[in-house]
Design brief:
The chain contains 7 helices and 7 strands, in the order βαβαβαβαβαβααβ. With 229 residues, the protein is of the alpha/beta class. It has a single domain, classed as Rossmann fold (3-Layer(aba) Sandwich). The longest helix is centred in the middle third of the chain and has 22 residues. The structure holds NADP nicotinamide-adenine-dinucleotide phosphate (NAP).
Length: 229
């Protein structure tokens, strides 16, 4: 059976994606900090989805979780690094703590979790890193999002690096730079903006991509947007 690890599954795109993958017969292991919402997700998946409460900004917790998966003998066929953290503030007002939180969740945890689960990847694993149009080179940038967008650019570049690093394996690493999707995070970034895409619609796209595109696309950083932002 295919096993997908989905981070940031308690709301928004990750919640919808976990449900979508579950409906396609994939064994989903979902993570986030909000246990009540993960429980609700599990209930919506007939109790068959596995979840793990985890703060991705806690290095020790990320390591412990990777060890747990290893002890259980989990083989990961799809890793969707979807969790995201955003601060929307003028550049000069972003504190060191806010900057660190954004990078911990959006970049460092992705780096470390992949590092620690390399031994659990199936021979044809597809790692999908969820980036943003803000992190896509040459895209329009917006004031207030310097920490967030630069972190998303880092994870896009990391994706390309990983594909080269593991070129001899059958593994695929791709980054999707999403445009606007109607979630709580979008409301934080662009208050009042109406997105053309719902989390459920984006979940179908990501599930299709995660389950099929790796044969043709490897090490790619792809803009997924019909509008700007
Ligand atoms: N929505 C958009 O328009 C848009 C556009 C471009 C890119 N994206 C990207 O798409 C992904 C999903 O976005 P979304 O709009 O669905 O965001 P969202 O509704 O804000 O959900 C973010 C998810 O990340 C989890 N998360 C945040 N901090 C965490 C931490 N420290 N540890 C563990 N989990 C954490 C949250 O769960 P807890 O709070 O329960 O921990 C939540 O499940 C993100 O990477 C985002 O950057 C979104």
């Amino acid at each position: 059976m295919e096993v997908a690890v989905v981070t940031g599954a308690s709301r928004g795109i990750g919640y919808a994606l976990s449900k979508e993958l579950h409906s396609r017969g994939v064994q989903v292991i979902a993570t986030a900090r909000s246990e009540d919402k993960l429980k609700a997700l599990q209930a919506e998946c007939d109790g068959k989805l596995e979840y793990r409460v985890l703060d991705l900004s806690d290095r020790g917790a990320v390591e412990a979780w990777a060890n747990e998966l290893s002890e259980k003998g989990i083989q990961i066929s799809h890793l969707i690094n979807n969790a995201g953290s955003l601060v929307n503030k003028p550049f000069g007002e972003i504190t060191a703590e806010e900057l660190r939180r954004v990078y911990e969740v959006n970049v460092f945890s992705v780096f470390e979790f992949i590092q620690r689960t390399l031994g659990l990847f199936t021979s044809d694993v597809h790692v999908v890193n969820i980036s943003s149009m803000g992190g896509f080179q040459g895209s329009q940038k917006f004031p207030g999002l310097s920490a967030y967008s630069s972190s998303k650019a880092a994870v896009a570049s990391l994706t390309e690096c990983l594909q080269e690093e593991f070129a001899e394996k059958g593994w695929a690493f791709n980054a999707l730079c999403l445009g606007a999707v109607q979630t709580e995070m979008l409301e934080e970034a662009f208050p009042g903006f109406a997105a053309p895409t719902s989390p459920e619609e984006m979940a179908v796209f990501i599930a299709d991509f995660a389950m099929g595109a790796q044969k043709y696309l490897k090490g790619k950083v792809l803009p997924i947007s019909s509008t700007t932002p």
